[in-house]
Amino acid sequence: MLLEIEDVSLLYGRIQALHGISLTVDEGEIVALIGANGAGKSTTMRAISGIRPVASGSIRFAGEDITKLRADLRVRRGLCQAPEGRGIFPGMTVLENLDMGAYTRRDKAGIAQDLARVLELFPRLAERRKQPGGTLSGGEQQMLAVGRALMSRPKLLLLDEPSMGLAPMLIQQIFTIITEINQQGTTILLVEQNAQQALARAHRAYVLETGRIVKSGTGADLLHDPSVKEAYLGVA
Amino acid sequence: MTTTIDPPERRETAVDKLRNGREAISERWHHAPRWVRWVLLVAVIAFFYALPNKEFYQYLGPIPTPGANFTQVMFTVSIYVLLAVGLNIVVGFAGLLDLGYFGFFAVGAYTVAVLTSPSSDIKTLWPWLLVVPIAIALTMVSGVMLGTPTLRLRGDYLALVTLGFAEMIRIAAVSSEFLKGQRGFNQIPHPPGQYADGRPVFGVLDARPYYWLVLTLIILVVIGVRNLTHSRVGRAWISIREDEDAAQLMGVPTFKFKLWAFASGAAIAGLAGALFAGKQNFVNSQNFELLNSIIILAAVIFGGSGNIVGAIVGGGLVAYMIERFRGIELFGVELYEYRFLFFGLVLVVMMIFRPQGLIPNRRRAAEFKDRRKEVIVGE
């Protein structure tokens, strides 16, 4: 098991955002976490990446208990998150942003190799390599966030709403790239509101409602589950 | 489905041109050949070394201050420039709002005073040069002590705590028996050095050697800071300023680097304080008003926070302009009395037309544009 979350609760002040969540991610998988606005998807991500401390429960990564480990040290262990929305560095150029992704690494040759790979995955970024991140369009910023996370060569890539605010064409494109990244050997945990795409691409998925996991199964199973269909896929 | 709507196209107005960070001067500078830049740099440095000589500045028209000894003014200006360079690390590079920066200056000055002055209770009477590194180290320690609990928090806490810190130092200076309050410490020794005929280099009357000393130290500090900002440390600072969460998600130990920025900034203020004490010969509680912290912060922002040249220009201009008002009368009113009114006006106008400062940092300019976009979207 690459990632194992057991009974994790998390508080924002006095508001409990997560009520005892348990989930697992196996090596090589794409696992999706779907749910409505405010269900606690992004909060779960923050707990895993270490940006928010958990109130109780445990998080294990590659056999090690990382519940209390600092966020930057989790990155060094091979766990990297592409933050939601505008989480790029607006004043740094595209290349400088990607370079920040490799902050924890010192193997120059490997970094150059990964940079070439990212620019190949995202040709738009290659075109705009000298441009400040803040001047990119929403879709390009999203690609930059994913590309930057890849630069740390993570074992587990956490993607928070990679399709948010994108045009349908671009959504297709970014999910194709996600599948490709996975096939090249990176395990992916994905948070999405676009349940249709996420379930179609994921090996397994969890449904989150008001801070609790209410359903889990393979992507295909959930795609055909009547209640999931009604609540998240917009079909009666 | 959401779609992004571009704000309607506007024609570029004069205000936009002012706002745009990429103005002709900096562009030209960056495109000039290497040797041209070196020649200009050497000329500017030579100009500032020559500036406090009467034989030189008497030909400079309105530049010398009418109401005060110009050489003394230049010393004050140089201290402010050093402080601005230091504060720029904290505010400009790491993006930490420090409202009590002058407090560290006070720690540096008082360390020198207590350890060298005969009026001090402990009577160590050490020489100035020996105490300077101690002053820097102590300031750094006080920076770490102040930063450790507060830098873990986000946002405005740091601003409040630093504000409180500077006030604490001031009140301690005013009321503590050990720090002598208004009476202060006298006979603080000067920096060492003698001319061939036995006269000391750093005397009481001539401020020039002190100015040259500070100017030289500014150059050294700037070289150091520049190297630091081009290293991994600098990249970490910038990433923290731009997006602290994202920086942490990229594996940057944000707390550690914030503490580093805070402590290095404090150390530079400590150095400035030690230089000040060594020149003044006398230190008392009136030297450390809260207003000074605000002036330096405003100077950094005015010059262009995040840019070393901006900080130098800002610190120098602000300190100089304040002194320049001295001795000018208009309709029977001494303008010096109203210096902060003008200062405030300039700041307000500046924030409207050029919030990124006189000489902005390229990245900072982009960050400002990015935030303006966010504001437009949020409207």
Can you lay out the helices and strands and say which pair or pack?
The complex is a heterodimer of chains A (236) and B (379).
Chain A: E1 3-12, E2 15-25, E3 30-35, H1 41-49, E4 56-61, E5 64-65, H2 71-77, E6 79-82, H3 94-101, H4 108-121, H5 123-127, H6 138-150, E7 156-160, H7 168-183, E8 187-192, H8 195-201, E9 204-209, E10 212-218, H9 219-223, H10 226-232
Helix pairs in contact in A: 3-6
Chain B: H1 14-19, H2 24-31, H3 34-50, H4 54-57, H5 70-93, H6 101-116, H7 128-150, H8 157-175, H9 208-229, H10 232-242, H11 244-249, H12 254-280, H13 290-303, H14 308-324, E1 329-330, E2 333-334, H15 339-353, H16 362-378
Antiparallel strand pairs in B: 1-2
Helix pairs in contact in B: 5-9, 5-12, 5-13, 5-14, 6-7, 6-8, 6-12, 7-12, 10-12, 13-14
What is the average per-residue confidence, as pLDDT of chain A, rounded to a whole number?
Answer: 91
Structural class of chain A: alpha/beta
Rg of chain B computed from alpha carbons, rounded to a whole number of angstroms: 22 Å
How would you describe the shape of chain A? globular
Q: H/E element string of chain B?
A: HHHHHHHHHHHHHHEEHH
In DSSP terms, counting alpha (H) and pi (I) runs of 4 or more, how many helices of chain A? 10
Q: How many strand elements of chain A? A: 10
Walk me through this protein's architecture.
The complex is a heterodimer of chains A (236) and B (379). By secondary structure, chain A is α/β, with parallel strands linked by helices. Chain A has a single domain, classed as P-loop containing nucleotide triphosphate hydrolases (Rossmann fold, 3-Layer(aba) Sandwich). Chain A is 39% helix and 27% strand. Chain A has helices spanning 41-49, 71-77, 94-101, 108-121, 123-127, 138-150, 168-183, 195-201, 219-223, 226-232; strands at residues 3-12, 15-25, 30-35, 56-61, 64-65, 79-82, 156-160, 187-192, 204-209, 212-218. In chain A, strands 6-7-8-3-9-10 form a six-stranded mixed β-sheet, sandwiched between helices. A four-stranded antiparallel β-sheet of chain A has the order 2-1-4-5, covered by helices on one side. In chain A, helix 3 runs parallel beside helix 6. The mean pLDDT of chain A is 91. Chain B has 379 residues and is mostly helical. Chain B has a domain at 69-317: ABC transporter involved in vitamin B12 uptake, BtuC. Chain B has 16 helices and two strands. Chain B has helices spanning 14-19, 24-31, 34-50, 54-57, 70-93, 101-116, 128-150, 157-175, 208-229, 232-242, 244-249, 254-280, 290-303, 308-324, 339-353, 362-378, and strands at residues 329-330, 333-334. A two-stranded antiparallel sheet of chain B has the order 1-2. Chain B is globular and about 60 Å long. The model of chain B has no long low-confidence stretch (mean pLDDT 86). The chains are: A alpha/beta (236), B mainly alpha (379). The A-B interface holds A 49-51, 70-73, 75-76, 80-81, 83, 86-92, 96, 99-101, 103-104, 132, 134-135, 137-138, 148-149, 152, 164-165, 167-168 and B 1-4, 232, 235-236, 238-239, 242-243, 245-254, 362-367, 369-370, 373-374.
